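Example: Microtubule-associated protein RP/EB family member 2.
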Amino acid sequence: MLFSVFFFFFSFVLCQYPISQRNISSRQPGREPGCSSWGMAVNVYSTSITQETMSRHDIIAWVNDIVSLNYTKVEQLCSGAAYCQFMDMLFPGCISLKKVKFQAKLEHEYIHNFKLLQASFKRMNVDKVIPVEKLVKGRFQDNLDFIQWFKKFYDANYDGKEYDPVEARQGQDAIPPPDPGEQIFNLPKKSHHANSPTAGAAKSSPASKPGSTPSRPSSAKRASSSGSASRSDKDLETQVIQLNEQVHSLKLALEGVEKERDFYFGKLREIELLCQEHGQENDDLVQRLMDVLYASDEHDNFSCKSGSGQLQKKYFRLC
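Written out as structure tokens, the predicted fold is:
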């Protein structure tokens, strides 16, 4: 009896062994066990040695072709919208494209898109850490490194199914974000004949007396005055260009400050509403928060408190 039981158990093990061997050999290299069967993403890990990179022009052409965008530079990927649509293409339902800001132009809108991307990564068990703080700054190298990795991730997970990116966006216009290095000001061409020193000299020169023979300047003097006028024009053009660049830099800095002001004001307003809504639950903590929100600084002539008890945006500087 004992021998029969042992023989039956040994035969069962031998029958199951080839099946397990076939399962092991059928796994694709680079895939995690069970990822494809459970619908999870295939994680990819690239290094500077193993990574096959594409040129900046090829990678942008690939992005535009796959998700029907009109990007011209790698830096424009800083909005995060393209990555969100890639995830919807690879894993339908893992992200809501209705929440994606395809017309994002400000940094806090970029952050919103990357938060959606992070949530989809977590949902699909993607191990990649998204360097959001670096990407939203629009620097070339940071965005190039991330899209190079994402291209490899896409190749490992795309199953070849058809996908209409325009229809998936449901009519949202995918406007590329502004190029961080784009020049806003166009330097107008001005004629310098009216303001040139020679013109002023001609107007201010006294009229010659009748009968007197005007002396003609020598060719050397004419060449000297022409050369000095040319140098003066070039100096003026250089000054105009430099001042134009300074104005451009100041305008960008002002836009950044205003953007941060609006962003943090929204956060403060949300905190104020929460304090007003839950004021009875924790009186001490809520009162302390309200005191901080409505505190005034007499030295800077700066106040956040109004008669109605609400934060007023007009009290913020640069409004």
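The longest strand covers residues 296-297.
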